[in-house]
């Protein structure tokens, strides 16, 4: 089990006592920096999708790569859904899931981290909404609204896409959108829901991957 984000450098009270009085300033600095890190930690929700090659492998690799970022801890992983492509050219079906992450990245840094994972897994941006090894979108970040040219949160198409909302509801059941709506209420607006099927296979939490 991976330790929480704020633990590196943490010292237990016992460790402080054993080290003697000279260790106190260092211990206090570590405690202060741990508190600061805890204070900065936020929950965010990411949507992942893949529709080329081994789609499940790509999803697992992306979840692992996100968790390998020292400012991101993957906290929950939804079921995997097979979904019909929406928009873009003719292409094969996607596998989609959502993850909840605890992160010390601010929203724009988190977008860069998501794009770094896409690049690592070999995604090349060609056709808009075209086939992709992996797509990592920020669906929600805490209860924040971000309206910038390169980053909108909630994700601008979240409430139009059942393939994003359905897995998101699994990992963010009580989450309220900044406009006050619940996620199920947003989903109800796009009913009837077609082209989203839960599949039997799962993507594992990084710490629970089978050996
Ligand atoms: P896509 O090709 O669908 O992955 O879209 C990527 C583009 O959407 C990037 O240029 C991002 O800057 C932009 N974008 C805007 N808001 C978001 C968001 N919430 N999550 C991911 N990408 C976003």
Notes on the protein architecture:
The chain is of the alpha+beta class and 211 residues long. It has one domain: Alpha-Beta Plaits (2-Layer Sandwich), CATH 3.30.70.560. Helices cover 32% and strands 20% of the residues. The chain contains six helices and eight strands. It has helices at 13-19, 24-40, 55-68, 107-120, 162-171, 183-188; strands at residues 42-50, 72-77, 81-83, 94-103, 135-141, 146-147, 152-153, 196-198. The strands form two sheets. Strands 1, 2, 3, 4, 5 and 8 form a six-stranded antiparallel beta sheet that branches. Residues 1-20 have low confidence and may be disordered. Adenosine monophosphate (AMP) binds next to β5 and β7.
CATH topology: Alpha-Beta Plaits
SSE ordering: HHEHEEEHEEEHHE
Backbone CA Rg:
19 Å
Bound molecules: adenosine monophosphate
Note the gap between the termini. Answer: 14 Å
Main beta-sheet annotation: 6 strands, antiparallel
Mean pLDDT: 85
Annotation, overall tally of beta strands? 8
> For this structure, what is the CATH class?
Alpha Beta
What is the annotated CATH architecture?
A: 2-Layer Sandwich
User: What is the number of helical segments per DSSP (H or I, 4+ residues)?
Assistant: 6
The best one-word shape is: globular
**CATH homologous superfamily?**
7,8-Dihydro-6-hydroxymethylpterin-pyrophosphokinase HPPK
Share in helix? 25-40%
Number of domains: 1
Strand percentage, roughly? 15-25%
Structural class by SSE content: alpha+beta
* Uncertain spans: 1-20
């Amino acid at each position: 089990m991976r330790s929480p984000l704020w633990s590196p450098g943490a010292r237990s009270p016992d460790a402080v006592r054993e080290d003697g009085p000279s260790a106190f300033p260092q211990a206090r600095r570590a405690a202060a920096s741990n508190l600061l890190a805890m204070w900065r930690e936020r929950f965010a929700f990411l949507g992942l999708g893949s529709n080329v090659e081994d789609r499940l492998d790509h999803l697992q690799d992306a979840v692992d790569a996100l968790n390998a970022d020292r400012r991101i801890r993957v906290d929950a992983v939804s079921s995997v859904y097979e979904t019909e492509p929406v928009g873009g050219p003719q292409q094969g079906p996607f596998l989609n899931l959502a993850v909840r992450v605890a992160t010390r990245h601010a929203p724009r840094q988190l977008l860069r981290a998501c794009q770094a994972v896409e690049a690592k897994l070999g995604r090349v941006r060609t056709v808009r909404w075209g086939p992709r090894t992996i797509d990592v979108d920020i669906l929600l970040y805490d209860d924040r609204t971000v309206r910038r040219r390169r980053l909108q949160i909630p994700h601008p198409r979240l409430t139009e896409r059942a393939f994003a909302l359905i897995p998101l509801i699994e990992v963010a059941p009580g989450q309220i959108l900044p406009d006050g709506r619940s996620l199920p209420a947003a989903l109800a607006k796009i009913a009837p829901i077609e082209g989203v099927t839960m599949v039997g296979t799962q993507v594992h939490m990084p710490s629970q991957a089978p050996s």
